[in-house]
Amino acid sequence: MNKVLRRSRRVRETPCSSCASSAAEPCLACQLQPENYVAVKDVWLDHRDDSLRIPESAPVEWAMVDLPDTVVARWDAAQGQWQSCREDYDGVAPLMRFLWLEITTHCPHQCRHCYLGNRLNRGHAPLSMIDAGLEAAKPWCPTEIVLSGGEPTMHPRFLAILQQSLDAAPGVRVLTNGWTQRAEVVRALAHPRISVEIPLLGNETVHDWMTQTPRSYARIRRSLALYVNAGVHVTLTTTVTRQTLPTLPDLRALAQELGIVFAPTPLSPQGRAADHWEDLRVIS
User: Fold this and answer.
1) Could you list the residue range(s) of the whole structural domain that residue 243 is in?
2) pLDDT at 69
3) Please, which pLDDT band fits residue 42 given cuts at 50, 70 and 90?
4) Which partner from 176, 182, 194, 205 sits 20 to 30 angstroms from 216, CA to CA?
5) Considering the domain boundaries, does residue 256 fall inside one?
6) Which CATH number fits the domain that encloses residue 232?
7) pLDDT in tens, 129-151
8) 145 vs 5, 65, 101, 115, 239, CA distance in Å?
């Protein structure tokens, strides 16, 4: 999965040359040019700012992010505490602060653009570390906990972590590929303070090629219907690549059919995406 921090609203300072003549806002393809921007919630940041790229030296990586700023603290597993990444932290909570917690590197997919790179399938975050991280984060007053992976539902203590996260912040966002269809997990995700993001990487042919997992498209389509019917607050996402770009209208139509938000994001040169950059990047 391509992990970038963002919400569905998009902001673009100026249209690219191909859209310069348009009186309206730039077309979707131009808004999502991966060479220039990485999406961070409601803010577009220049790719030259690499502060949000996840190092590949650790099995899991945690960050604390302010809006409209970037990373303000990272978790020091050896010290068991959050280490400030900026000198001007004054202890005052911003309008939006969220914790990005990779709780596992395990995933049933082998995505060509996976940001984990060689950290994929290297292990789970220990529950004791998650306990410590959430407890130590309380003085920072996070407004949202983002549970990421890998595939977070593959953590053997996922339901306990989900409840701990609800206890630690007003909102919880789960970045899942929708692989799990376990009834107890779906029920838990239907909590009113939980939002879920599920990607479809194009149509069946493109999605299964991107994930390198046969029949994954069919499974995720079933999961989308299952989650929505169960009352889970779902956002449909996709990563915009050369292969997925032509399928965006169909994905948007699917989201409308399901009554959910569609939020495409640009490809970011992290992990495997960097290795396959020339094959995946959108060419204007």
Assistant:
1) 17-280
2) 57
3) very low
4) 194
5) yes
6) 3.20.20.70
7) 899 889 988 888 889 999 999 99
8) 12, 10, 7, 19, 22
